[in-house]
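Lab notes, practical 5.
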Amino acid sequence: MPDLEDDEKKTNKRRKNIVEKERIAEKRLKNPELRDREREANKIKMAEKRLKNPELRDREREADKIKKAEKRLKNQELRDREREANKIKMAEKRLKNPELRDREREADKIKKAEKRLKNQELRDREKEANKIKMAEKRLKNQELRNREREADKIKKAEKRLKNQELRDREREANKIKMAEKRLKNEELRNREREANKIKMAEKRLKNQELRDRERETNKIKMAEKRLKNPELRDRERETNKIKMAEKRLKNPELRDREREDNKIKMAEKRKNKKILKNLEKFEEAKFMGPTEMCSCCGCLWFKTQVRSYNILNNIKLNKNDKDLVDFFNVGENCQFCNTCFQDISKGKVPRLALSHGLMFPEIPDCIQKLNDLEERMVSARIIFETILHLPKGGQYKMKGNVVNVPVDPNAMLPLLPRLDDDLHIIRVQLKRRIKDPDKLKIDDLYKTVRPHELRQALNFLVNQNAYKNAGVKLKKDWFIRFPNDFSKTSDAEDDQQNSFENEESDIVGCLDTLLDNDDQQIGVAYAPGEGKKPLNVLIDVNAASLAYPKLFAGNERPLVTKTMRFTVTDFAKSELRRYDRRCAENIPYLFFTFKRKQWYEATSASNIFKRKIKGQSEWSANDALDNIKVNQAIASDKAFKSISKLRTSPSYWEKNVMKQLQ
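Output from the prediction step:
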C-alpha cells in the first residue's frame, strides 16, 4: 500500500507541473513584454554561466558551427553571400596590415609547393610556362642575358668548390673532349707536348722537391716494370755490372769503400740474426714461464738461470753439510740456481736451502676440504684486508691496510647447532661486528659450513706446534655434549619422522646468534674479532701459520737456525718462487706478504736512521714529537736517504727511476 501512495503522489506532481507550464505558455502568448523580459533574463544567466564555465562556451561554439554548416549546405545563396563578405573583409585587412599580406603569401607558396609535389603534371606545366616567359624576356633584354651568364658561372664555381665529385666529372668530360680534339688535330698534340716540356723544365729548376718526387715516382715505375718483365731485369743487371766493373778499374778508392761497406753490412746481418734468435728464445721463455727447479732452494727459474753440477765430485762438504746432499734426493747430478751455486761452490749451505726447514708441510685431507669460511673459523688469526677485482685486465688490488686479529677457535663451537648427521651444513656469516645491520656488506663472508669437517680440522690443528705455542686448546665439553658417533637403536626408523618435525626446533636453539628471528635463512652470524686488539704482523711471527691453515697446516716456520736468522724477505722469496705454487696462487696471502715485507723494510729503514743520528743512543716517541729534533734530522738528510730502498718513497724515485729517465 505505501508504494501505491508514492506513485499517486508522483503522478499528481507531474500533472501540476504540466498545468503550470501550460499556464505560463498562455501568459507568454498573450504578453510579449513578458517574453522579452524572460529572454533578457535567460541571456544574462547564460552569459554568467559561460563566464564561469569555459567548457560550456566550447560546447555552444561547436553547436553553433554545426548549425551554421547545416544552413550553408541547404542554402546556396547564403554561402555565396558569406564568401563575398569574407573577401571584402580580408581585402580591407590586407590593406591595413602588410604583415598579414606577407603571411598569406608564404602560406600560398607552401600550398602551391605541396600541390606541385603531389601533381607531376602541374609541375611540368609551370616549368614550360616559366621557360617561355624567360625566353621572351631574354630576347627583348640583352643585359638580362649577360647577368644570367655571370650568375650561372658564379653558381657553378660555388658548386665545384663544395662538390668534389662534380669537379671530377667535369675534369673527365674535359679530358674526353680534349682527347677527341687531339685525335683529330696532329698540330695541336705537338704544340701541347712542347709547351708541357717547357713548363715542366721550368718547374724542376725552381722546385727541388718536385725533382725528388719525380725521381721517386720514376723508381717506383721502373721497379714495377722490372717485376712484370724479367728480361728487362736481366738486361739492366748486365749493364750495371759492366758499368760498375769499369768504374772499379778506373777508381781503386771505390773498390776499397765497397769492401768496407760490405764488411759492415755483413756484420749487421749477423747481429740482426742473433737478435732475432734471442728475441724468439725470450718470447718462448716468457710464454712458458720459469720451469726449471733448483735442487737446493726448490724455486722455479728460467733455463738460463740454472746450471747442472756434480756436487759430490766438485765440492768438499763437511760432515754436517752431508745432510744437504741427502736432502736433495736427486742423485749426485743436480741443477742449481746462480744464487745457490755460489754458496755451494764455496762449500757452504745456501741461505734459502730447503734443508733449513723451509719445505712446505703436507696438507691432510681434513684441511684441504675446507672452504674459505671454514678455514677462517678454524684459524687462530684472522687477516682482515680489502681486495678489489679490477674490471679490466682481471687483476686484483688491495685497498687500505692489513689487520691481524687474534681469535679463539673455541668461541666458534658454541655457535654451531646440534646436528645428528655429519652431512648437515649450516649457513654462517663472518662479520667484523655482530651489531652491524642485518644486510650483508661487501666485506662480509657468507657461506655454508660443515660442522663435521670443522671438528676434524680442529682436532688436527690443535696438535700442531704453531697452535700449541699460541696456547690454542680445544675444549672437549662441546664434543662430550654433542658426540660425533650417535647410537642407532632399533627405534631409529620410528623416530625418523619426529626428527624431521623437530629439525626446526633444533636450529632455533641458536637464535641468539641469528641475524633476525623472522628471517632464519641468513644463518649464524659470527664475529670472532669483535673487541679483540690487533697484533703487529712483525711481532706476531707465527701470524701466517695461524691465519692460513691450508698453506702451512698449523706448522711453524723456522725463524732462527744454528747458523742464520731468516727475515720476512727471505720467506717471501722462498715461498713465492717455490715449485709448490700454493702460496703464489693464494691472492690474500700474496697481499699479506707484500704488506708485511713493506712494513719490515720501513721498520728497518727507521732503525738505520736512528743508529745514524750522532749523540743519540735511542730515538723515543717524545723525540719524534719534538719539532727541533725532527728538523735537525731532516736538515742532515739522513732520514730521507734511509728510506731509499722503499719503492714508494721519494728517495727511491730520485735514486733509481729519475736517473733512468734522465
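Observations recorded by the TA: Confidence is low (pLDDT under 50) at residues 317-323, 326-330, 481-521. The chain has 30 helices and nine strands.
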